[in-house]
Amino acid sequence: MNQDALQACLDSDSDDCLASVPGLAQCVVTVRVCNAAALPTGGSLEEPADGADVSAADIRARAAAAFDVPGDVVAVRPPAAPTALKPGARAASSNGDGVWTVSSSSSTTGLQRGERRFEGFIAHYTPRTGALLEACWGDLCDVQ
Q1: Phi, psi of 16 (to 5 degrees)
Q2: Is 67 exposed, middle or buried (0-12, 13-18, 19+ CB in 10 A)?
Q3: pLDDT tens, 103-143?
Q4: Phi, psi at residue 8, to the nearest 5°?
Q5: Contact 99, 125 (CB under 8 A)
Q6: Cα separation of 47 and 39, whole Å?
Q7: Other CB atoms closer than 10 Å to residue 53's CB: what's the count?
Q8: Which range is most confident: 11-25, 43-57, 66-80?
Q9: How many C-beta atoms surround the C-beta of residue 119 within 10 A?
Q10: pTM for the structure as a whole
Q11: Could you tell me which of 73, 57, 71 has the C-alpha nearest to residue 125?
Q12: pLDDT at 76 over 70
């Protein structure tokens, strides 16, 4: 998905983003979150100025707010300490290494806030900024 186009759309006329941002509609259809929908108001995908990493409490609060569940039902797994990464290796692999992983079995509407409910969710957040990378909910999650 074109992240620059998404940010520009969100900054101007966010009601039309689904139709105007290349790749956003496909992202929604595949039920993968490819944007910063779970960031708090005023959040940013950029590195924090002080260089501080986010805490487990920050990640728990973001996930609880994004999925509309109580914070005490959100399990948080910190990023795995990277073992020697080879040049060009990705720090965040598909199994959740290198990212914060949160999960819950509580009933949620996911990030869509519709009337349909799902049992549980799994989401990955960046270790430095706490930006949402991807999420799934209910039976839509891959077996992990």
Answers
A1: -110, 10
A2: buried
A3: 999 999 888 777 888 899 999 999 888 889 988 988 888 65
A4: -60, -40
A5: yes
A6: 14
A7: 14
A8: 66-80
A9: 12
A10: 0.57
A11: 57
A12: yes
Distance CA 99, CA 70 (A): 22
Question: In this structure, what token pair is assigned to residue 49?
Answer: 């100025």
Average pLDDT in the 13-28 region? 72
- Six token digits for residue 91: 């720090």
Q: Which residues 6+ apart lie within 8 Å of 50 measured at CB?
A: none
Q: Is the pLDDT of residue 58 over 90?
A: yes
DSSP-derived secondary structure for 6-48:
HHHHHHS-GGGHHHHSTTHHHHHHTT---S-TTSPTT--SSPP
Tell me whether strands 118-125 and 75-77 are parallel, antiparallel or unpaired.
unpaired
Per-residue pLDDT, 120: 92
Start-end of H helices in the chain: 3-11, 17-20, 24-29, 56-67
What are the C-alpha distances in Å from 33 to residues 116, 121, 125? Answer: 17, 12, 11
What are the tokens at 2? 């074109």
pLDDT value of position 42? 42
Residues of the chain by 3-state class (helix, strand, coil), percent to 5: 30, 20, 55
Supply 86's token pair.
Answer: 């080879």
